[in-house]
Design brief:
Rossmann fold; seven-stranded mixed beta sheet; six-stranded antiparallel beta sheet; 21 helices; 25 strands; globular; NADP; oxidoreductase; FMN binding; EC 1.6.2.4; Flavoprotein-like_sf
Length: 666
């Protein structure tokens, strides 16, 4: 008897917070003939190849039908985009697959299920916010003595080799699933954001489809269905790249309180942001050659000490003005309310589509807050923007540029090219369409800052170090463009090639420029420090350099804490000490000990060296069940770990498992 395979596809909020679910069903065909048709931070250096080999000892093809579920754990939207692309590709592989909306979390334990995971690593080895409930559920299964022996799985990890805990979330998920008895169909791939992540994923997807074809006894994916990087051609339409149409609505249109369930991760984060009035903003290092501000805003509601505030910052005014001119948008038009509808849809169409950002909103808010108009987009996004080009020569430059991957990598990692600069260099003749532009350009991911105030203060304080430095001119890059692309510069681009360039961190620049009475958009979420139970009753060692002091200020403002507190703080010099007056006050408290290291003085010392001098003091805290908290730069964090392991004989993972080692690094 012949059979066909049907795949279900559902996008929903649940389990890993959002998933694309497929059900594979086997049934008899009336005519006896089978049908078998089938369906992303800053200075990366080296690319790690993704491992895509099938796992040794793979089991035979499955005898029972089950469901295929594609999950993603995503903080910035990259894992989500890859998972959705995989879902689309799987559905195109077999057109017989049918939708199924009735999928329950626990059904992952049913025999015959195949789970495909695209999981990013957030912060320093953590799971993304939308994956935490799913991971807790897996851990509960283990504690309850349950297993997932009927589950087969594949994992693609997303991370950056800049971090010591490279792809830690994917590795942790793999370990959890194996401990529960699940079978790994395909060796885990570790995608590296410092390399060509999309190519890593595409390579892994080819191997994945081969494994699925064998496992499900279906014809393999045709070679021609493997996606290839599209060439930009004159006459390409942006409408072929995006699904929606822009519509203007009346000024009294009201946005729903909660984001639609089908909104993507970044859109949901933007949707959560609410207005907070700035109460104060002052530079704490006026005598230094760097600027670190304390930005104080109204809380609006209760919060926990050392929570994270995610700030939806505004694009620089000159950048917004630049794109207003490119899009032919007047000042008066910025106040117009806009929304999106499915192609050929009406303005009153129910929001049964994926909005690119919170709508309805003003056109001004879209340009100012929701689009990332400063960072250089991915190659895929830039190719989509190529549909706005209007000359064959520009299209040819585009295609040559993306054939030379080292040029794009240089723009991103060495030159810190901004989107306006890219448009000036390669898209000067482009005619940007508002509806297409608003959908194609990357959306802004709110920036995370640990709240540096205790709820008892009645304010939310953020510690913000302004990022600004001189970077390379385009002078040398100009020679590479001419040699490799045959680039012809204009008078305007020639001037740009020789101008001095300053990198300005978009969010830090924005926050440090806020004035009293201004409004800042943000939402809060827990941090590693805000979730430690019983911290008030425990002895605590706090280690930080620079702005890493933020969560510890929130802790020392809690007057109810009576247990011992030992601080190791690192600054460039006395003029760079943050919250200096408060530190002087707590030095006089009997339960506080404060050690400060200065790295740019006649006798330089870093905070980790200071820690090494007081190893026994720290060991005593840990031996008593106390907690060691670390916040600051990644190099400092790595050396602290080395000291704890080498001089104290403690394993970091053991301390973390007991809740005695908490860190947030950047």
């Amino acid at each position: 008897m012949s059979s066909t395979w049907r795949l279900t596809i559902t996008v929903s909020a649940g389990v890993l917070a959002a998933y694309i679910c497929y059900r594979v069903c086997e049934h008899s065909c009336a005519d006896g003939h089978g049908s078998a048709e089938q369906e992303a931070d800053d200075d990366p250096e080296e690319r790690r190849s993704a491992e895509v080999e099938p796992v040794a000892g793979q089991r035979g093809v499955r005898e029972t039908a089950g469901q295929i579920a594609v999950y993603y754990g995503s903080q910035t939207g990259t894992a989500e985009r890859l998972a959705r692309a995989l879902a689309l590709r799987l559905s195109e592989w077999n057109s017989a697959f049918q939708p199924n909306a009735n999928w329950e979390e626990e059904r992952i334990a049913q025999p015959g299920t195949i789970a495909i995971f695209a999981v990013a690593t957030h912060d320093d080895g953590l799971f993304p916010d939308n994956a935490t409930n799913f991971v807790k559920w897996l851990r509960r299964l283990g504690k309850d003595g349950r297993s997932l022996t009927g589950l087969s799985f594949c994992i693609f990890g997303l991370g950056s080799s800049e971090y010591l805990l490279f792809n830690q979330a994917a590795k942790s998920l793999q370990l959890l699933l194996k401990k529960l008895g699940a079978h790994e169909l395909l060796r885990m791939a570790l995608g590296d954001d410092t390399g060509d992540l999309k190519s890593d994923f595409d390579q892994w997807t080819v191997s994945l489809c081969d494994v699925l074809a064998r496992e499900l006894r279906i014809p393999p994916m045709p070679v021609e269905s493997v996606p290839k990087a599209p060439c930009v051609k004159l006459g390409d339409s942006w409408r072929d790249r995006v699904p929606l149409e822009l519509r203007y609505v009346s000024g009294d249109a009201v946005r729903q309180h909660d984001p639609p369930s089908n909104a993507n991760v970044v859109c949901k984060q933007q949707w959560q942001c609410t207005d907070h009035v700035v109460q104060d903003n002052f530079n704490m290092t006026p005598e230094g050659n760097t600027q670190t501000n304390c930005v104080v805003v109204e809380p609006k509601s209760g919060f926990s000490a050392a929570e994270t505030a995610n700030v939806l910052y505004a694009n620089p005014p000159e950048v917004v003005q630049y794109f207003m001119e490119k899009l032919n948008i007047s000042e008066a038009a910025l106040g117009k309310m806009i929304t999106f509808v499915p192609r050929y849809g009406a303005r009153d169409t129910a929001m049964e589509f994926e909005p690119p950002f919170p709508v309805p909103c003003t056109l001004g808010d879209a340009l100012c807050y929701y689009l990332d108009l400063t960072g250089l987009p991915s190659v895929e996004v830039l190719r989509d923007m190529g549909t706005f080009l209007k000359t064959n020569e520009a299209c040819q430059w585009f295609n040559k540029l993306f054939q030379h991957k080292e040029l794009y990598k240089r723009m991103r990692e060495e030159l810190y090219v901004t989107l306006p600069e890219f448009v000036e260099l390669f898209m000067a003749d482009a005619q940007l369409n508002i509806g297409g532009f608003l959908q194609i350009v990357p959306k802004k991911v709110p920036k995370a800052y640990t709240i540096s105030s205790h709820p008892s203060s009645g304010e939310i304080a953020l510690t913000v170090r302004r990022v600004q430095f001189y970077t390379h001119t385009f002078k040398d890059f100009r020679h590479s463009l001419k040699k490799q692309l045959g680039y012809n510069e204009t008078l305007r681009t020639r001037k740009l090639m020789f101008e001095a360039r300053i990198y300005k961190g978009s969010c830090t620049r924005y926050l440090c420029s806020l004035q009293k009475g201004d409004v800042v958009k943000l939402y809060r979420r827990p941090s590693a420090f805000s979730q430690v139970e019983g911290l008030n009753e425990k002895r605590v060692v706090m280690i930080a350099n620079g702005a890493g002091i933020a969560p510890f200020r929130a802790l020392w403002q809690d007057s109810s804490a009576t247990a011992d507190r030992v601080l190791f703080l690192g600054f460039r010099g006395p003029e760079y000490v943050l919250y200096a007056d408060e530190l002087e006050r707590i030095k006089s408290q009997p339960n506080y000990t404060v050690h400060i290291a200065y790295s740019r003085t006649n006798k330089p010392m870093y905070v980790q060296h200071l820690l090494q001098k007081h190893v026994e003091e720290v060991r005593a805290v840990l031996d008593s069940g106390g907690v060691l908290c670390v916040c600051g730069g990644k190099p400092m964090g790595a050396q602290v770990k080395a000291i704890v392991q080498h001089f104290m004989g403690c394993e970091i993972e053991d301390l973390k498992a007991k809740g005695q080692y908490i860190e947030e690094l950047w």
